[in-house]
Write a structure and sequence with these properties.
Layout: E1 8-12, H1 28-33, E2 41-45, E3 49-53, H2 58-64, E4 69-73, H3 81-88, E5 94-97, H4 104-117, E6 120-123, H5 128-132, E7 145-146, H6 149-152, H7 156-166, E8 172-175, H8 178-185, E9 187-188, E10 200-207, E11 210-217, H9 226-231, E12 234-237, H10 242-247, E13 253-255, H11 262-265, E14 271-273, H12 277-283, H13 287-316, H14 323-335, E15 340-343, E16 348-351, E17 375-380, E18 382-384, E19 387-388, E20 391-396, H15 402-419, E21 423-424, H16 432-444, E22 455-457, E23 466-471, E24 484-487, E25 490-493, E26 497-500, E27 503-509, E28 516-521, H17 539-562, H18 566-575
Helix pairs in contact: 13-14, 13-17, 13-18, 15-16, 17-18
């Protein structure tokens, strides 16, 4: 920093494609701070080191940050990193950043902000963390695979045609988001753990009725799919050449400046800023994708039920398992299911006080024992060729306290209140922001809440988190038929326990009310009746839970019978028996 004349250095949790989950090659914040969460940014000065993160990760950051780092909680009353600079650094200070991992919009907006205040926000082409990172992991060289149309439900050529139509009179469109590229081309990769994407850039060029596809990717990764690429007239270029290709284009280029990194953005002579075309197309799943989600949730439901049944018996028999090692059994069960391609994210397997960490991940050498007399929270998911899973269940294998049962029941009722809502299509423009209160109101009645959004979109054998839709105050995109969202209210009591219940739901036409929409819950795992405080349920609540449990039983029991899995079947019968 001294050599570069910097007073501070800004480093976000990001990479050139603004991925939420990073490859090991790009986990710079983890390297310098010890923090492993998926959302953070840091500011380093000559005297201080600060890390900002949201409420999901406050406890985790307090636990993981190396000595000398200060946690800045992203909440009202706490200055942002740029406000902190103005408050604590002298005028004319220079704040450096790597333009390849900061989006164009962020760089432009922050530059203006700092200039107006008498400061500089200076792009530094070399990343100073990279320069001190010894033995930095290399980028993945895993080959790219073709995603069969029988799972995608739509051909590559039809997707390209739809994208081209949305381009209007513009002839060039730059795509930098990896899940958008994978979705468009019906290809998948293994460059980012849990996310089946590959590092690349895509430029779509329209010339009359012809669409030219320019894909910038490590050429060694496509050797096995050359026939597919050539058959679809996809031209391959070195990954590093995207910038020079763009700089030679004189016409306007459509680009999403909220995701394109600033370094690449600067190479475009005539950028046409526009929100992502592909994100909005991808958000509305086709009938094949929706059915794939249903089918994959059935298979994943079998795996989760087998695991919960196994774990309960192990604890009953006095066997000791820690959070990390126990979840390996779940990995095994998932791997045995058809079309499984691994996990959709690292298992959040946590017992007792650890469950109060919203995104706690047990480590092989840092994991607590699962105890029968404590709440156990499992947030996990599998990747399947026909769908991506995100399921959370909270259970107690012993005798929960009345307070634990009350908190669980309030979370469950919030989950059900959101799932049961119906709303008119179109005229009201209902978004996730409008519905978020439904998942919280039972908690609010007791002065409780949770510090995360209620739900997010889920990719189709893609990223477990996707947009633009979701359920939170910030998600104001209208909910459309074919979109999906998770439904995951929770409550977290620091030092004691944590509760979350999560299902994946699709926005669907209401089966009996014309011009109204509703949610279809596709998750197939029972709720824990041991944690339900029955006195808080009315007859309608009981009937709804019983109906859902009957669906789970009717769906999963034939599979278990066909496999002669009497142990899990007996567990399922008890778990789904009616509540009175």
């Amino acid at each position: 920093m001294i050599e570069l004349g910097l007073n501070a250095y800004f480093l976000p949790h990001s990479d050139p494609h603004r991925n939420e989950y990073l490859s090991d090659h790009d986990k710079r914040i983890g390297f310098i701070t010890g923090f492993k969460g998926s959302n953070a940014h840091t500011l380093i000065t000559q005297e201080q080191a600060l890390l900002w993160t949201d409420g999901r990760y406050w406890q985790e950051a307090e636990k993981e940050l190396y000595e000398g780092w200060n946690l800045m909680k992203i909440t009202s009353g706490v200055p942002t990193y740029y406000e902190w600079c103005i408050q604590n650094l002298p005028k004319d200070s220079i704040i450096g950043y790597d333009p390849s991992i900061v989006t164009a919009d962020a760089a432009i907006n922050r530059t203006k902000y700092f200039v107006d205040k008498g400061y500089q926000f200076l792009p530094i082409e070399r990343n100073i963390v990279n320069e001190i990172w010894e033995n930095r992991p290399e980028l993945s060289q895993e080959p790219i695979i073709i995603f069969d149309e029988k799972y995608a439900g739509e051909s590559f050529t039809k997707k390209i045609k739809r994208v081209a139509e949305e381009m209007g009179d513009k002839n060039f469109y730059l795509v930098t988001a990896l899940d958008e590229i994978a979705w468009t081309l019906n290809l998948r990769g293994k460059d980012v753990e849990y996310n089946p994407v590959f590092f690349s850039y895509l430029i779509l060029e329209k010339r009359g009725e012809e669409n030219k596809i320019h894909l910038f990717v490590n050429e060694g990764k496509v050797a096995n799919i050359r026939e597919y690429l050539e058959g679809n007239r996809i031209q391959i270029y070195p990954y590093e050449s995207a910038s020079s290709f763009l700089s030679a284009i004189e016409e306007s280029v459509i680009v999403d400046s909220t995701s394109c990194n600033y370094q690449l953005f600067k190479s475009i002579k005539n950028p046409e800023k526009k929100e992502s075309i592909i994100t909005n197309l991808k958000a509305i799943k086709n009938s094949t994708e929706i059915q794939g989600f249903r089918n994959s949730h059935i298979r994943d439901g079998v795996a989760v039920c087998k695991y919960l049944a196994w774990l309960g018996k192990e604890l009953e028999d006095g066997h000791i398992h820690n959070e990390y090692e126990a979840a390996l059994k779940l990995n095994q069960y998932r791997s045995e299911e058809d079309l499984n391609m691994g996990l959709s994210f690292a298992n959040i397997s946590c017992s007792g006080p650890n469950a109060s960490f919203i995104h706690y991940h047990p480590e092989p050498d840092n994991s607590s024992e699962i105890k029968k007399d404590q709440i156990y929270l499992l947030d996990s998911g599998g990747q399947y060729l026909d769908g991506t899973i995100d399921t959370t269940r909270t259970v107690h294998y012993g005798n929960p306290t009345d307070w634990e049962k009350e908190c669980y029941t309030r979370v469950l009722l919030g989950n059900l209140d959101l799932e049961r809502v119906v709303w008119p299509y179109g005229t009201w423009g209902i978004s996730g922001a409008d519905l978020d209160i439904l998942a919280r109101r039972r908690l609010w009645k007791k002065g409780l809440d949770f510090q995360h959004g209620t739900g997010h979109g889920v990719g189709h054998y893609l990223n477990v988190h996707e947009g633009p839709q979701g359920i939170s105050r910030a998600r104001k995109i209208q909910l459309e038929e074919g979109m999906n969202v998770t439904n995951e209210p929770g409550y977290y009591e620091k030092g004691n326990f944590g509760i979350r219940i999560e299902n994946v739901m699709f926005v669907a036409k209401h089966p009996t009310i014309e011009n109204f929409l509703c949610f279809e819950n596709v998750t197939r795992v029972p709720y824990d009746k041991n944690l339900i405080l029955l006195s808080m349920l009315n007859d309608e609540d009981k009937a709804y839970i019983n109906a859902y449990h009957q669906i789970v039983y009717d769906t999963l029991s034939p599979i278990l019978r066909s496999r002669n899995d009497d142990f899990t079947l007996n567990w399922l019968e008890k778990a789904t028996s009616p509540i009175e």
